[in-house]
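Hi C.,

You asked whether I'd gotten around to modeling the 299-residue construct. I have! Everything is below, sequence then structure, no commentary in between.
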Amino acid sequence: MSVAQLEQVVTNAPLQRSKSRSEWSQSWRRFRANRAALIGLCFIILLCILAIFANVLVPYDPNYSYPGMRGMGPSWGHPMGFDHIGRDLTARVIYGTRVALLVGIGSTLISVVLGVLVGALAGYFGGGVDTVLSRIVDTLMAFPLLVLLIVLAFVLGPGLGKTITVIGVTTWATFSRVVRADVMALRKSDFVTAARAGGVPDLRIIFRHMLPNVLGPVIVLATLGVGSIIILESSLSFLGLGIQPPTASWGGILADGRSLIRQYPLITFFPGAMIFLTVLAFNLLGDGLRDALDPRQRG
């Protein structure tokens, strides 16, 4: 690229940033017009408040067994009743919200970091780097996810930190593929060519100039992925390979009530309803973000 062309690209940079801000503003207006997405966002905010202020909002110990209250139904002071050993279900479900969000968000962050890093390197450098990293992604996606999670959880052992790590390092392949495709499309763009001509290091081009242009799809995938990860965590806890008793988790509460579902159906109803509503909320939010960030909706 000639010096004149490079100067032209630099001169147009403020206009490009202004256009980008305008596009994000339009995306936000489209998102606000989506009522279902706003409902999902409000529900997620409510969950975050419950998780952060559980100690303040719940006056009961989630692990304390009240004598004589085994399987008792809802009351004014205990809206969800008691479980099979007399523990307050409301407290356990609310404290389980904290676990679900920690695992969902924590594992998603690990997955996004790994997927974006691998996808960006593969898409930018191509050649042998792309071949090796793409084969790693293909190998990971060839395994049934739940089976792979069960094996890793069995090998590493249960626990909150290990559950977050295990899920995070096994769910990043989708992010990698999406980022790789977008980076490959951007690799021959004028601003990348100009940056190379100016002697900008490759890693700086990737992280400073290219990744901001692929954030839209990553944000949508991450939002949709949180719901899926909550289901995976609940499945592991239900099988006894995730969060261990007496720590409250939605999957663990389901496991407690499965053998008593006919006598005490509420033990499984409330955590099951929370899983359903939470996953639905993240899916609604993800769908709203996808529609808002879709370039075909811009106009």
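If it helps when you're writing up: The longest helix spans residues 89-125.

Thanks,
B.
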